[in-house]
């Protein structure tokens, strides 16, 4: 008689998809944020004049209503959705802490403001400008400028929070994002003052803050490490 032993089957290690497969939505969103803005700005010229009245707005925008509508959809709508994906990706990759929660709240609020601007911007072009309603055009433009100022404040908070998380080593991001984040946040606050106070002297700072913001958000989308990957690779910051 021969004894036979039954060897229990070995548990196979959990199969995880390759890193690029798990991270591609975040990478696409990071690049897409900048692409949406660049294409939108290339469609037609943009102005940082926060004192124009309704008549001037109609006079300048009437010849290019279709292009301006598409610009709003890209720079405020598509860009907002891309930013939301980047913010969520950062939140998932970051250890618990105040910076993580602050970034999520500020980012989601900035996205909500931007989507609101998408609707108002389309109404401005398709209803006020096409209908030659100077009063409505002036009112909508004023509201859009106020929302722009609020959004810039929220984006500054988002950038500072992400930078703080990197400074505290709660997330994996390139070291050069620390000084970039500081400069970007300051430029955004200067721009916000211009839009909220209707000051062209400060609103021109948007020409500096926007390219810095595009670089910052795209870098976060491309470089931030998910929690699972950090745990697999170890803490090599």
What topology emerges from the helices and strands here?
Blueprint (H helix, E strand, L loop, with lengths): L18 H25 L10 H8 L3 H29 L4 H32 L4 H34 L9 H21 L2 H4 L2 H18 L3 H7 L4
Helix pairs in contact: 1-3, 1-8, 2-5, 3-4, 3-8, 4-5, 5-6, 6-8
Task: Spell out the key features of this protein.
237 residues, mainly alpha
Write down how many β-strands occur, each being a DSSP E stretch of 2 or more residues. 0
Helix content: over 70%
Poorly predicted segments? 10-21, 227-237
Q: What is the CA–CA distance across the termini?
A: 61 Å
Question: What is the succession of H and E elements?
Answer: HHHHHHHHH
Query: What kind of assembly state do the chains in view correspond to?
Result: single chain
The percentage of residues in β strands lies in under 5%
Q: Given the structure, what is the number of helices?
A: 9
Q: Number of folding domains?
A: 1
Q: Biggest sheet, open or closed, and with what strands and sense?
A: none
* Coarse shape: elongated
Rg measurement, Å:
23 Å
Q: Can you give the mean pLDDT?
A: 86
Structural class: mainly alpha
Please characterize this protein's 3D structure.
The protein is mostly helical. The chain has one domain. The protein contains 9 helices and no strands. The chain has helices at residues 19-43, 54-61, 65-93, 98-129, 134-167, 177-197, 200-203, 206-223, 227-233. Helix 4 (98-129) packs antiparallel against helix 5 and helix 5 (134-167) runs antiparallel to helix 6 (177-197). The radius of gyration is 23 Å and the shape is elongated. The protein starts with 18 loop residues before the first helix and ends with a helix. Mean pLDDT is 86; it is low at 10-21 and 227-237.
């Amino acid at each position: 008689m021969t004894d036979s032993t039954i060897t229990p089957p070995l548990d196979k290690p959990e199969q995880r998809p390759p890193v690029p497969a798990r991270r591609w939505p975040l990478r696409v969103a990071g690049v897409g944020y900048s692409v949406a803005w660049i294409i939108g700005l290339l469609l037609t010229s943009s102005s940082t004049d926060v004192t124009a009245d309704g008549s001037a707005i109609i006079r300048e925008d009437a010849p290019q209503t279709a292009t301006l509508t598409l610009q709003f959809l890209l720079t405020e709508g598509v860009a907002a959705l891309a930013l939301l994906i980047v913010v969520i990706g950062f939140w998932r990759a970051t250890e618990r802490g105040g910076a993580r929660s602050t970034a999520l709240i500020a980012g989601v609020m900035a996205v909500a403001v931007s989507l609101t601007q998408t609707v108002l911007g389309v109404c401005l072009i398709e209803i006020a400008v096409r209908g030659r309603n100077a009063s409505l055009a002036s009112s909508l433009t004023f509201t859009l400028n106020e929302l722009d100022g609020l959004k810039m404040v929220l984006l500054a908070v988002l950038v500072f929070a992400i930078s703080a998380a990197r400074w505290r080593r709660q997330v994996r991001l390139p070291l050069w994002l620390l000084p970039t984040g500081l400069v970007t946040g300051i430029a955004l606050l200067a721009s916000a003052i211009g839009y909220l106070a209707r000051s062209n002297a400060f609103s021109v700072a948007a020409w500096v803050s926007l390219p810095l913001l595009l670089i910052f958000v795209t870098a976060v989308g491309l470089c931030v490490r998910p929690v699972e990957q950090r745990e697999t690779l170890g803490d090599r910051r």
